[in-house]
Design a protein that fits this description.
By secondary structure, the protein is an alpha/beta fold. It folds into two domains: about 220 residues, Rossmann fold (3-Layer(aba) Sandwich), CATH 3.40.50; about 230 residues, P-loop containing nucleotide triphosphate hydrolases (Rossmann fold). It is built from 18 helices and 18 strands. It has a six-stranded mixed sheet, sandwiched between helices. It has a six-stranded mixed sheet with strand order 12-15-16-9-17-18, with helices on both faces. A four-stranded antiparallel sheet has the order 8-7-10-11, covered by helices on one side. β10 and β11 form a beta hairpin. α3 runs parallel beside α5, α5 runs parallel beside α7 and α15 packs parallel to α16. The longest helix is centred in the middle third of the chain and has 16 residues.
């Protein structure tokens, strides 16, 4: 939905229980946001040309009255509040004499809302920040659907699986199928191609702010959809495995902490090693334990023989470790700052001259990185939040790579970005290894690990279950091993 074509949602030809998909290329992310904002009744495109056909005069209350509900990628939940309280933020509390809240009734209502979506395991009194990603997504959907029997006709889901671990995605899909069976139309915005074929009846592809096509999913295959999204074919790349001539750069022995019970591993210069495993396997804790963001219970980490102190991020940086987090908006970038400030904040000292920070030098270095990584930004001062997800991720890569690391750690490096930007990020990772960095990638995207890695370590129940090398690195081997259906520790 383009900002230049802000039309009523009838343009998607919605019918009960039909799911049109909106698949977008990264350069279109702002235009997609404009379209959703107009549907919500937000004053997002006040200065843009709009047709007088319904949405132009819509307000948020009118959108709600029309039966349109929204769940955004960031969910819009207040982490310190419970499910009960988050639902009440939108729908209000039931009160009695003197305005006293009927808490028992509110708890029962919240329980019914999440049970209706198949999540009876949610503690509705606990802060939502303590819930799993899938449970938080369910709370956001439950909040949007309160009173759905009476008034909800259309549910807009914006990147609902962007931050979900792989094993939680299916639970969300079950919720979507349930809602579809109840006659609710769903507008599902995503860049995950497997979700298109899993969920959608029809798909609309957006690129450069314009609609490319709307077509039944049954008429597409994976390669054709990719070509429609990026405008050209993406060639397959294979990973070659060479014999090791150098000593390991990163060495880990007996690492324990979080859900990780024990891990020994090494990474060599120029090598890309993957970490696979379902949520709870320990995979999600490894990089935090290495970089000092999570305290170790035991074990040692060394980089080129230099010891990395426990729970000391500064020690990891000093040893030559750079880290790109999976949560770039929350932990990787500072939303109120621009591209330049976010890119150089890891080491501003190099631009201090005579006790003053030389912004001109900062801007020049930032511009060099923008050219080098093909970052799409109008200027070095553009707010980081104005960039698409793929370009924000490139800024995070530049911030890490400018430190000249010996070890490059990447947590879900292509989470929340489209297939075209994903290919560019993969090329950056390849280049980092070619330049001699030891690269360690933790990912729930099995295809990504197969595409990138010389070796993959599969973790099960906190321990190394199997090491896959070269031709052993396949989708089948990774998936079977992480589900503990085949393989033995090696």
């Amino acid at each position: 939905m383009s900002k230049h074509q802000a039309r009523p949602l009838a343009c998607w030809d919605m019918v009960e229980g039909l799911e049109p998909f909106a698949i977008y290329e990264e350069s279109d992310v702002q235009e997609r946001a404009h379209g959703i904002a107009v549907a919500m009744g937000l004053p997002y495109v006040v200065r843009e040309r709009r047709r007088d056909d319904g949405l132009a005069g819509m307000t948020t209350s009118a959108a709600a009255a029309a039966g349109i509900r929204f769940v955004h990628q960031d969910l819009g939940l207040v982490g310190s509040l419970s499910t009960v309280e988050n639902l009440a933020l939108t729908n209000g509390y039931r009160t009695g004499f003197a305005g006293r809240i009927h808490w028992r009734s509110e708890v029962e209502k919240a329980l019914e809302a999440v049970r209706h979506l198949g999540f009876a395991d949610i503690d509705v009194k606990a802060p939502v920040e303590t819930l799993s990603p899938a449970q938080r997504s369910t709370v956001a959907i439950a909040r949007a659907l309160v009173g759905w029997e009476r008034s909800v006709h259309l549910l807009v889901l914006d990147e609902p699986t962007a931050t979900l671990p792989g094993d939680d995605v299916q639970r969300l899909f079950d919720v979507i199928h349930l809602l579809k069976s109840k006659g609710i139309s769903i507008l599902y915005v995503s860049h995950h191609l497997d979700e298109v074929f899993e969920l959608a009846d029809r798909v609309t592809v957006l690129r450069d702010g314009r609609k490319v096509t709307t077509t039944p999913v049954s008429e597409l295959d994976h390669d054709k959809l990719i070509e429609l999204i990026v405008g050209h074919r993406i060639e397959e790349t294979t990973v070659s495995v060479s014999s090791r001539q150098e000593e390991a750069v990163l060495e880990i022995w007996g690492l324990r902490g979080g859900s990780l019970r024990n891990l020994d591993m090494t990474v060599y210069p120029g090598e890309i090693v993957g970490l696979a495993g379902i949520t709870g396997s320990g995979r999600e804790n490894v990089l935090g334990l290495i970089t000092g963001q999570i305290p170790r219970i035991g074990g040692t980490v060394t980089v080129g023989g230099l010891h990395v102190d426990n729970y000391e991020p500064r020690s990891a940086l000093k040893a030559g470790i750079s880290f790109v987090t999976a949560e770039r908006a929350l932990r990787g970038s500072i939303g109120g700052m621009g591209v330049r400030e976010n890119l150089t904040i890891g080491d501003v000292g190099r631009h201090f001259v005579g006790g003053r920070l030389r912004h001109a030098k900062e801007r020049q270095e930032t511009q060099d990185w923008i050219r080098r990584l093909d970052i799409k930004a109008s200027s070095t001062e553009s707010p980081i939040g104005a960039l698409s997800g793929g370009n924000q991720q490139k800024v995070m890569f530049a911030k890490a790579m400018r430190l000249g690391p010996r070890v490059f750690l990447l947590d879900e490096p292509t989470q929340g970005i489209d297939v075209g930007a994903k290919d560019q990020i993969h090329q950056l990772i390849d280049s980092a290894a070619t330049d001699g960095m030891a690269v360690l990638v933790a990912s729930t995207d099995t295809e990504e690990l197969v595409r990138l890695c010389h070796r993959v370590l599969v973790l099960v129940e906190g321990q190394l279950q199997r090491q896959l090398v070269g031709d052993e690195v396949t989708l089948e081997n990774i998936q079977h091993t992480q589900l503990h259906t085949s393989g033995r520790a090696s």
